[in-house]
Amino acid sequence: MDDVLKMYDACNLVTPRDVRVDTHVNGIPNNSDTRENASASRGDYACAQDKSDHDEIRLFRKLDLRVLPVLWFMYFSSLADRGALAQARLNSLEDDLHMRGNNFNIAISILTVGYVLTQVPSNMLLTRVRPGLYLALVMFFFACTRLVNSYESLIACRFLLGFFEAPIDLASRIVLLDTSRMAGLSFANLIAAGVFEGLEGARGLRGWRWLFIIEGAASGVTALAVSWLLPDTNETTRWLSQEEREIARIRMQREQVIDTQEHEPLLSALQSALRDPRMWLFCAMENFHFGEHTFTNFLPTVVRDLGFTSTAAFLLTCLPYVFACIVLLFFAWSLGRFCECTIYITIGFIIAIIGFVAATSTLDVAGRYVVCFVFSAGAFSASSIIIGWTATTMSQSQGKKSVALALLNVSGQISQIYGAYFWPESDGPRYVIGFSTSAAFSVLSLICSWIMRCQLKRQNRQLQQSAGEGTVNL
């Protein structure tokens, strides 16, 4: 954690400095920046300014230790809750709730509807309220969405789960916190295996009901911890000294881009983001990228259909996510030293495409299980890079950056609405439709990334001709 430098962002949460080379305006370097500045900045893992102040380093280590674990467990709990339906399917959920046809696919996609409706308003609201209290209340409410007695109640609870989980996804704005996504997906399967084996039939309840109860209770406990542990701003954080607060304030000012309004009108920030053509290209990139992630809701079923029992399928599903987490950390470490967003996105997507294509071509147990590692690693490796790239390019103001990240996430989540229908049960065990569409989405997202690279290079050349040299966000 020594080389991770963070700061409070527009939502007053702790995030790393955006993946960037030097300060820029509208995605183009500021006139005052030079190639020497860019070279000097490479000492920071996030390609931000170099760290030389020991008091500053100690401050951000302190923030790491105090805040990151809280945010990590919040997002872990969110992903575990979201993925519970995929595990419950292997424990007679569909039979108990009399689900037929594409009912399961509808239950998967309805969560995203609630999520999409609240993501942008939630991001904008977080700049106006106490984040610690707000996120704690949100977690408490989605912990209550576990009472399922029928298919209709399942649909209602899934919609509310997406509604209340939207604010929690802010935690994924950092690579280290993004590992909680893989941890949530991985350990949720371990938890499900233990619950289904040990609590099936206990007190007259099926295993999947116990899974919902246990994960909901865990979310409630996390909500109580969040309300106490998560700070709101550096000025009001009780465990920061006055000197540390001043260091944080100076750091934020030094790395601030243009327009430092703390209370930019919400409508103005929204309009600024919507009128920027790059925002729509990033949204398309993220939509296609999340489209390839739809396999996560069906991977336990895919593994089970290879001939394994439900318990074995849960245990085997864990390992591809653990491997993806390791690859993600390597990409993050390497990217911080070379600052080439497009190259790393390209590598990740190529790996994913190879895995998806290979998955459609074989039903050999060993071969198909191995490619689960391949496409999982490739699909997840680019997630944080796209987020960081967007945050840097769209950071002309804190308000615009906050709205841009919300729009980016909404565009990605929309793909989960229609993507769930690419995995019909009738297409098993090969699931050609699902894996083929995931490969196609990877290709489309890759094309968007190179279009964005070319556009930013053109803008950089225009700036170099008029105001000097510099590079950024490639």
Shape: globular
How many strand segments? 4
The helix/strand class is: mainly alpha
CATH C-level:
Mainly Alpha
CATH architecture name: Up-down Bundle
From the 3D structure, determine the CATH topology.
Growth Hormone, Chain: A
Q: Return the string of H and E elements.
A: EEEEHHHHHHHHHHHHHHHHHH
Number of helices: 18
Query: What does the average pLDDT come to?
Result: 75
**Strand adjacency order, main sheet:** 1-2
What's the name of the CATH homologous superfamily? Answer: MFS general substrate transporter like domains
Question: Helix coverage percent of residues?
Answer: 55-70%
The domain tally reads 1
Proportion in β-strands: under 5%
Describe the largest sheet. Answer: 2 strands, antiparallel
Parts with pLDDT < 50 across at least 5 consecutive residues: 1-50, 257-261
C-alpha-based Rg, rounded: 22 Å
Head-to-tail CA distance between termini: 25 Å
Summarize this, please?
By secondary structure, the protein is mostly helical. It is 68% helix and 2% strand.
Which characteristics define this entry?
474 residues; mainly alpha; Growth Hormone, Chain: A; two-stranded antiparallel sheet; 18 helices; 2% strand
Question: What secondary-structure arrangement, pairings included, does this model have?
Answer:
Blueprint: E1 6-8, E2 14-16, E3 24-25, E4 28-29, H1 35-41, H2 54-88, H3 93-96, H4 103-125, H5 131-143, H6 151-165, H7 175-198, H8 207-229, H9 242-254, H10 266-274, H11 277-291, H12 299-304, H13 310-338, H14 341-361, H15 365-381, H16 383-393, H17 398-419, H18 432-467
Antiparallel strand pairs: 1-2, 3-4
